[in-house]
Amino acid sequence: MMEPKADGHQPTQHELQNQQQQQQQQPQQSGSAGTAATAAAASILTVPPMQNGAPPVRKHHSRPGSLSESPLQTPGGQRAGLPRRSPSERRMLEQYVMEHGGDKPFYSVLVANNGLAAVKFMRSVRSWASQALGNARAVSLLAMATPNDMRVSAEHIALADQFVEVPGGSNNNNYANVSLIVQLAERAGVDAVWPGWGHASENPELPAALAQRGIRFLGPHAAAMAALGDKVGSTILAQAAGVPTLPWSGSGVAISFEECEGDIPPELYAKACITDVEDALVRCRNIGYPCMLKASAGGGGKGIRKVNSDDEVRVLFRAVAGEVPGSPIFAMKLAPTSRHLEVQLLCDMHGNVASLFSRDCSVQRRHQKIMEEGPVTAASKEVLAKMEQRARALAKSVHYVGAATAEFLYCVEEQTYNFLELNPRLQVEHPVTEGITGVNIPSCQLLVGMGVPLWRIPSIRALYGKDPNGTDAFDPDTTPQKYPDSHVVAVRITSEDAAAGFKPTAGRIDELHFRPTPEVWGYFSAKSGGGIHEYSDSQFGHLFARGPNREAALRSLVVALRDVVVRGEIRTIVDYASDMLQNSDVINNQLHTGWLDARIAQCVIGPGSTPPWHLAVIAGAVVRAFEHISAQSAAYLGFLTKGHMPPDNVAMSFSDALIISGKRYPVQVQRRSPTAFCVTLNGCSSVEVTTRKMAGGAFLMQVDGSSHIVHVEEETGGTRLAIDASTCLLEAEADPSKLVSASPGKLVRYLAPPGSHIDKGNPYAEVEVMKMLMPLLAPAAGVLCFVAPEGAVLGAGDLIARLELDDPKAVVRAEPFKGGFPDLGPPVVPSQRVDSRLAAAVDAARNVLAGYLQPLDWVMEELVGCLDSPALALLQWNSQLAVARSRLPQNLVTQLEESVKEHTADVLMWQQQLELEEAAAEEGKPTPAVGAIHHVKVSEFPAAVLLQEMQAALQETPAEERNALLGHLEPLMQLASQHLGGRETYARSVVGGLLDAFLDVEEKFKLTAESGSDKPTTEQEAVDAMRKVGGVPAHRIHGQQQGLDRVGEWLY
Fold first, then answer.
1. Whole-angstrom Cα distance, residue 871 to residue 388?
2. In a designed cystine with 100, which of 27, 456, 671, 866 is the match (CB 3.0 to 4.6 A)?
3. How far apart are CA 903 and CA 878, in angstroms?
4. What segments bear the compositional bias annotation Polar residues (predicted)?
């Protein structure tokens, strides 16, 4: 018998009948909406404890084997294998539930879902428990985890209090396996099961089987789920409840829930269904094209096709039937420019139904939502109020319990709405409603499941203008609500390639970063170091932005999307979504359900989705050159480490032909230094680039005065470059005779018979990738020879079929690019100071000796010109003094500045005369001043005086402070010492250092040759030997000797 509620409520006759239906009803499987539970539910009672049938081994327990699961108890009376809660924590939860009119506290809940659904529920329950009970973990949450989930470090596993391993693979092995879910719930002894969305959330067998075991289901009872979860059945019931519908194959077919008690008579149900292709043709003609063919059990883009003609019906009817085998099929009139509006419903066990306003989900691709917002602004408040009232009436008519979503198609021009379907579960986009109402919907599901009436839930009371802590009852159906004072816009983050028609992708996630703000929040089911596996849903994130109005919310969301970073093997729609939200149609709210599909069909890609072509070419060339030279160096050192003579030298140049977007770019790359590269296109256009490889494997690249972060991923079709927030593919040479899988998935069926001829662009097979069905198109005309069988599980790069080409010569090759780079500047702003230029020239000369390829003429001209400049010593001195000034005594600084005052004036006069001559030469107008530069007398840099003053200051400094002052003066004293002999002496010391480096290499090679051994004997000799080709130093081969000879001529 049903016990009275804690608030004194006595069970009604309907409630008693409903409980009896849940415990005893086992309807026969049929095409009707009454399939609340199948006869297989009885078999769930005797689920074996393990897959192999062997009884589990448990320590400290000895009991006979059982055909059914029963939870073990700890000595304290709690369930074994779940987190322990103290008696005070349990009493706190029990007291809260009873004080709010509930009848059964839930100490533990099995989350029968994964991904974003599980993450959102856990975070919401934790938030509610923390605020209401002061303990975020008052309710233990048990997660299910497949090996696939654990391999990618799924976030829901880390959030749970406990998890249990379940088989991997497709969801019929785990999250959609009703028998397994019930077994786990019974074994763990949980109080309730939360189904989420997708998987088993709309399978009426689950609530039926749980009710038989006394475990509550956080959703509707089996009869209501069966009636409303079935698209045909729910539309029949909606028509009976007076909810308007579009013309469809069941127009006029109606029966109320009370009349049939949720079990629609099969003969009545059959009147709304299509039996075969001929029947489909008749029904579609009667309705009028365009129509939608739908499978009643379909969803998520499966089992739904648009048809515009009889010919399309003949082809696509079979596709719909094949995607959802055994499902009833119906046809419905297509409303191409309508809005997709939703009403969020929340119903309790006491007959109360609340509607939490509405959402607009019109932006969809392949009948799956991408953008959602609320409250609805496309319809008037009066229309929305009627729509919400009809939705509440439909839920009441089936005695619904839990969260539900009533979906409608709204025609803006006619201001009319028609029923689409009612989803008997929570929807992905429910946080939109949370954002405009302040209601934590998953926590309400939990409270409703514990028997709490809606009018006792604090957030619901606040929504209706009541005291959140009050106890007075009210009817949500007739009590006015507080209208939202804000607007929320949401966008889904999916692992899809927007540039390839939203093709799903799976793989590793190296970095995931999102910056929440007071206006923007989000949920992610993955994290850095994790990934998206091939059996998961493509959606792994959801962002929400709230503002005082729609425009403000859109702006905030665009800003937030620009800061989202997702890097790894997967592709995402982040950049596409950011561009889409800035489209004028979105901003002006001129949207409909076909808007995004039309945009995709037109191949509209945002300007930031792909990098500029020259940047892609430069990045690709440098990355490949870097990796090629690094691999050569590693191989060379590997030979030396093993004591073997390497077969060849390490070349500091690299050539390749990059294919990007169907064009071939011939490039040559020279490595100037460890961080500098020169990229030449078509042998005529060059650009300088600096590149550093970062710790995480990315490249920090500077081109044309801008810096870029470049990430590299190898794919089946080539090398993927992620340049800042945009991506491009360095395409591999494709072989059109081999048809391979671009990503992991399942080969669902052939679309062309084996051995048949197929034209270019026609579909030859259909694959399922992350729950989406995708056609594969032939890249050329030819005869098909399938290799993989239908139903085969495919990996990335797996061969699906071979194609005997009609004309191998007709295969389209990449078009050669004939031009050059645009006008590009240096990678960084170069300094024109003589001291900085000399440092760069000396560094370039040392790189020459190290084997890198530098322009020798430029190196020598810079060395000679800078060393001959009268301003060099002064600029070097001023730079060093600026560093030490704040640490030196002020009187010493004044004294040093006074000592260089005369020399400074001479240098300034020389500089002014030089600038006059350079300006006159540029204008081509000689003046009497031209040539005067050679007659300007510049005093010598007072190095000796400065050195004497610094030594005197040291002598006058107390002994205890002398070492500190010496540390600050040492760079200045060293510089002054280098300039003691004047410009010529300093120049000799600089070039002498280069000569010493040159001779050091020569002498080591000489010693190695004289020893008669090819094997280097020290680490230094091993490094030097890398510069050798056939026993000759690399710097002689590349012409560095000629450059050093020119320096010698200048000196002597």
1. 83
2. 456
3. 12
4. 65-76
Amino acid letter, 292 = M
| CA-to-CA separations, 49 to 67, 77, 80, 184, 840, in angstroms, rounded | 8, 22, 15, 9, 74
Q: Is the CB of residue 46 less than 8 Å from the CB of residue 40? A: no
Closest CA to 24 of 11, 10, 35, 37: 37
Whether 691 and 620 have beta carbons less than 8 Å apart is answered as no
Q: In the structure encoding, which two tokens stand for residue 1045, read together? A: 């000879």
Say how many C-beta atoms besides its own lie within 10 A of residue 114's C-beta: 29
Residues linked to residue 726 through DSSP beta bridges, in sequence order: 723
Give a three-class secondary structure readout of 1012-1045.
CCCCCCCHHHHHHHCCEECCEEHHHHCCHHHHHH
Residue 81 CB neighbours (<10 A): 15
Residue with tokens 């995708």: 774
- Contact present, 542 and 516 (Cβ < 8 Å): no
Nearest to 633 by CA among 666, 668, 674: 674
Give the lowest-confidence range in 69-83, 694-708, 768-782: 69-83
Dist CA 580 CA 577 (whole Å) = 5
Residues labelled catalytic: 425
SS3 185: helix
CB 225 within 8 A of CB 426: no
Q: What tokens appear for 1013 in the block?
A: 């051994």
Residue with structure tokens 């009590």?
479
Beta bridge partners of 358: 343
| Confidence band, pLDDT 50/70/90 cuts, at residue 810 | low
Instruction: Find out whether 419 and 238 touch, Cβ atoms under 8 Å.
Output: yes
- Residue 770: closest CA among 155, 170, 119: 170
Structure tokens at 32: 């009707």
Residue carrying the six token digits 């970073």? 565
Q: Which tens digit of pLDDT belongs to each residue from 346-402?
A: 999 999 999 999 999 999 988 889 999 999 999 999 999 999 999 999 999 999 999
User: Is the per-residue pLDDT at 136 higher than 90?
Assistant: yes
Q: In whole angstroms, what separates CA 210 from the centre of its chain?
A: 37
pLDDT score recorded for residue 69: 62
Structure tokens at 764: 């030859």
Pair 181, 193: CB distance under 8 Å: yes
3-class secondary structure, 309: coil
Name the residue among 487, 503, 288 with its Cα closest to residue 375. Answer: 487
Q: How does 553-583 read in b/e, with b if 16+ C-beta sit within 10 Å?
A: bbbbbbebbeebbbbbbbbbbbbbbbbbbee
Distance from the Cα of residue 384 to its chain's centroid: 35
Eight-state DSSP code of residue 790: T
Q: From start to end of 672-741, where are the E strands?
A: 676-681, 685-693, 699-703, 706-715, 718-723, 726-731, 738-740
- Cβ-in-10-Å burial (0-12, 13-18, 19+) of 129 comes to buried
Q: Cis omega (within 30 of 0) on the bond before 607?
A: no
| Confidence band, pLDDT 50/70/90 cuts, at residue 882 | very high
